Structures are given as C-alpha cells and as structure tokens.
Amino acid sequence: xxxxxxxxxxxxxxxxxxxxxxxxxxxxxxxxxxxxxxxxxxxxxxxxxxxxxxxxxxxxxxxxxxxxxxxxxxxxxxxxxxxxxxxxxxxxxxxxxxxxxxxxxxxxxxxxxxxxxxxxxxxxxxxxxxxxxxxxxxxxxxxxxxxxxxxxx
Length: 153
Description:
The protein is mainly α. The protein has helices at 2-8, 12-18, 22-47, 51-68, 70-80, 88-108, 120-132, 138-149. The longest helix is centred in the first third of the chain and has 26 residues, at 22-47. The chain starts with a helix and ends with a helix.
C-alpha cells in the first residue's frame, strides 16, 4: 500500500481511507480495468469485420496492456487463483461479447468448434501469468495460444 501511495503522490492514510485492504484495492483495479476491456471488446464486435482478426486483436490488446500495466497482469493472475474477480455483471457481459466473437469465428471456420466463451477468461489469465514473468516472451506464448485456437488441419 505504501508503494501505491508513493506512486499516486498521496499519503498512505489516504490510500487506506479509500481502500482499507489490499483486496479492496485489487477489486477496484479489476473493476476499472474490466470496464476498459469491455469497451475494447464491444468495439471489436461492432467494428472488426474479420472474425480471426477480432480474436487476435482482443488477445494482443489485453496482453500488451498487461505488459504496460503490471498491476493489471498481477490482478489477472490472482483472478486465476480465485482470489479476486470481476463484478458478476462484468463477467456476464464479457462472456456474451466473447461468445459473439466466437460465433462469427466458428462460422468462418477459423477457430476450433469446441472453443467456448467460458474458455476465454482462463486463456487471458494464463497469458497474464506469462506477462508477469517479465520480458517480451509473452509474444511467443501469445502466438502459441492463438495457434491452439485454430481448428485441426
């Protein structure tokens, strides 16, 4: 919490008044970052006509954001462990948007038929753990992940 206060340019007491625990701070971070992610995925659904490109852009955006924002990557790793998570309405909306992306991608034959929207959060969390490890190695794992989404040839 001291590090958060220092970076925000406020006293640690101010941080604790707004976020009495690290868990409360993590929840607020997740809620704000999830809103940003939802806006991006909504835009992909509405504006990206290529179904494969929409999925690639979704994963690229999320991984690049995690690489720039290590706190977000750390929060996603905690989400994978079940320690914290998005608000229920946020998760429902994300799954609905991802299902729209996947319906288009399955219809175009560019993803595995068995890939479900409910698989996606775990894939994002897995990618976050690679990002947390540091460096640019996440780009290789993103390519491997995307290859795994493709239908068998």
